[in-house]
Amino acid sequence: MTLFQFYFFEFSAIYIMIGWAVYLMFRINQPYFGSLYSMCIGAYFAAYTSINFGWPVWLILIGAVILSALIALIPAFRLAKLGPFPMVIASIALLFIIQTIVKNTDVLGARYGLFGMPFIPQHITLMITYGLLILIGYVVFHLNYSHIGRAMDAIHFDRDVAETLGINTNSLSVQFQIISSAIGAIAGVLYAYTMQGVFPAAFNMNLMMYAITIVVLGGMHTMWGVIISAPFLWGISQFLPKNLTGLSIIIYGVLLILMLLVRPGGIIDRKTIKRFTRG
After folding, report:
1. 3-class SS at 197?
2. Which of 98-107, 108-117, 130-139, 248-257 has the lowest mean pLDDT?
3. CA nearest neighbour of 140 among 180, 186, 167
4. 10 Å Cβ neighbour count for 197?
């Protein structure tokens, strides 16, 4: 396997995870991007503990999930009461806070980041990544097609109506924030091992733009579109000539606007799923 093929399969899986993490919150009409700052936390946790303490991957994954979940829990109860726009603003602020902290912390390499993580063979990395991807996909699938999924639909349609039906919208939001952050942390650990290090600039507004485009392009109301949009969007940035790679974020923006105007439901919407299941 060439290095390009490895990166394509690895980053496609990582960004599918991020897409699912963002998608879960979109389902309850709360565009929460805590998975992105949790990705940053997970990546730095992996880099620091593997370089300084020699922790194994399995322990780092568990530690990163617990740490990210605890950090996400701090603002979760307050964020659960916010509407869509305030949630976006709060998420952006939290992402910048985490990025600024790591950028100004010498023990985390400050603006230069941390590098020199233990090397894991490519085939082992892919096995771990796709094993976790299948596990996360299984969880998201069962959340979608259960009574929780029906509650998500009700909240997305009208939060007040959902509450009159006996759905605890705040509790569900808190739970989804934690799940979303845990998925982000796993993606961050895998990202750090793939790059064998981490740096603050990887977790900026471009990452948020990328995550939004993945979900909107793939489809905001189903989990399946992300599986197509994440590899497609990552591939765009890789196939562009080197002198045009900076234009990738502009291309994402254009695709985002076009999709919202032409096909708001995304590549795979609920009608597509119904047609497919009916044969």
Report:
1. strand
2. 248-257
3. 180
4. 21
> Measured between alpha carbons, how far is 185 from 166 in angstroms, rounded to an integer?
32
Condensed to tens digits (0 to 9), the pLDDT of residues 69-99 reads 999 999 999 999 888 888 889 988 999 999 9
- Report the range of poorest mean pLDDT among 90-104, 142-156, 173-187, 243-257: 243-257
Q: Which residues contact 198 (CB under 8 A, 6 or more apart)?
A: 43, 44, 46, 47, 113, 114, 115, 191, 192
Asked if residue 266 lies in contact with residue 219, where contact means CB atoms within 8 angstroms, the answer is yes
What does the pLDDT look like over 92-120, one tens digit per residue?
A: 899 999 999 999 999 999 989 999 999 99
DSSP calls for 80-143: TT--HHHHHHHHHHHHHHHHHHHHT-GGGTGGG-EE-PPP--HHHHHHHHHHHHHHHHHHHHHH
Assigned token pair, 46: 């992996």
Please list, residue by residue across 227-248, b when 16 or more beta carbons sit within 10 angstroms of its beta carbon and e when fewer do.
bbbbbebbeebeeeeeeeeeeb
Q: In this structure, what DSSP letter does residue 224 have?
A: S
Mean confidence (pLDDT) of the chain: 90
Which residues neighbour 44 within 8 Å (Cβ) at sequence distance 6 or greater? 102, 108, 114, 188, 192, 198
Tokens encoding 119: 């090397």
Residue 36 has which token pair?
């992105």
Which helix H or strand E contains 198, and what residues bound it? strand 197-198
- Residue pointed to by tokens 């705040």: 170
Return the CA Rg of the chain: 18
Assess contact for 22 and 214: CB atoms under 8 A: yes
Q: What is the pLDDT of residue 158?
A: 85
Q: What is the pTM of this model?
A: 0.94
